[in-house]
Design brief:
single chain, about 200 residues, two-stranded antiparallel sheet, alpha+beta, 4-stranded mixed β-sheet
């Protein structure tokens, strides 16, 4: 492993330690989850879904701040109260610039609630160890959602790597169900066609 990868691994573990210290359950998605189910790629961000009880806000703020990731309690409280959008809380490590995007688990979001319940503990090997990650199916649906919003091709590359790596182990019926609910069929079919053409 390179020094940069080790540095990022230390950052990930610092975030997880802060959440654990504050008794906040989490689920990791994004690039780190893709490492488990697809192919690794470089990143400076960490995407997580977190469930933050009201009585844990102060503890979380303190735990992040003492790890050089200042996130005032008032900002956390305001974001919890504001249910109009899905803007994450940003915890930025001041020395390295690494960023943790903390997406809130909200009662009205059926897919996020389902994905959180389905999280799996995966051993990512030396440097990271066991972490709670998205299942590959939920990761694919989220990547489709993010691509539909941002049009960033990295999401398509990640989806393709997961589909090709996991193959028949994927629960395609589960994916298809949420693709239909989220109206992502056109993008999903396009990705599948690209994968078939490469095969």
């Amino acid at each position: 492993m390179t020094e940069d990868v080790l540095d990022y691994a230390d950052f990930v573990l610092m975030v997880i330690d802060a959440l654990s210290e504050s008794d906040i359950p989490y689920l990791i998605g994004g690039s780190v989850a893709t490492w488990a189910w697809g192919e690794p790629r470089a990143t400076r961000d960490l995407d997580l879904i977190v469930e933050i009880p009201a009585d844990a806000v102060e503890n979380l703020s303190e735990a992040l701040t003492k790890r050089d990731m200042p996130l005032p309690a008032e900002i956390i409280k305001d974001r919890i109260k504001d249910s109009r959008g899905d803007v994450p809380l940003n915890a930025i490590h001041e020395a390295s610039g690494y960023k943790a995007d903390l997406y809130l688990l909200r009662k009205g979001d059926a897919f996020r609630q389902k994905a959180f319940k389905r999280r799996v503990l995966v051993d990512l090997g030396p440097g990271l160890g066991e972490l709670y990650l998205h299942t590959p199916e939920d990761l694919i649906v989220y990547k489709l959602l993010y691509y539909s919003i941002s049009q960033q091709t990295k999401h398509i590359r990640d989806i393709s790597s997961v589909v090709q790596t996991m193959g028949d182990e994927l629960d395609m019926n589960y994916i298809q169900k949420w693709v239909a609910i989220k109206e992502l069929g056109a993008i999903w079919n396009s990705v599948l066609q690209q994968i078939r053409s490469q095969g």
